[in-house]
Amino acid sequence: ALNQYNTKKAELDAAKTALDNGWVQIASAEANLNSVRQLLDQLLSSSFIDEESYQNQYAKLLAAQATLETERASLVEKQAQYDSAAAQLADASNQLSSYSAELEKNRTALNAAKEETAPYLAQVEEGRKQLEAAKAQLDAGKNALSEKVAAGDFDSELPVESTDEIGILTGTFN
Length: 174
Hints:
The protein is mainly alpha-helical. 88% of the residues lie in helices and 0% in strands. The protein has three helices and no strands.
């Protein structure tokens, strides 16, 4: 999402630059048209140009002005599209900020949960080690007793080395 945002922002920045240049060009063209109109009026009033030539040149001036108005309308439409896209980008930026804040909140909660569960995980690991040790002890006793029974010694008993569950189980087995 961040890459898409950055790409869209770069595209909008380029579009904004193009729009700004377009507005500058339109302003320059309007100034040029006004200068030409004033020059034509001066030429007509000073009799350097006849009425027919003036009308021809003025028609060209009006055509250029119509073209300029078409360009202005196109630029206004592009400006509206840019403004809409910029608003969408601002919304996306706000959403991205919201997602980032939510992510940070979740990251903090996860770290807190890790800290809270760490002692319990250590206890589970200690219990697992104790179970492995008890299993090894039972396996050793079982193997020793199996060898004695296989040799015909049915009076052998496993040594009861504790009073915990393993010791009780060993005593019961005997």
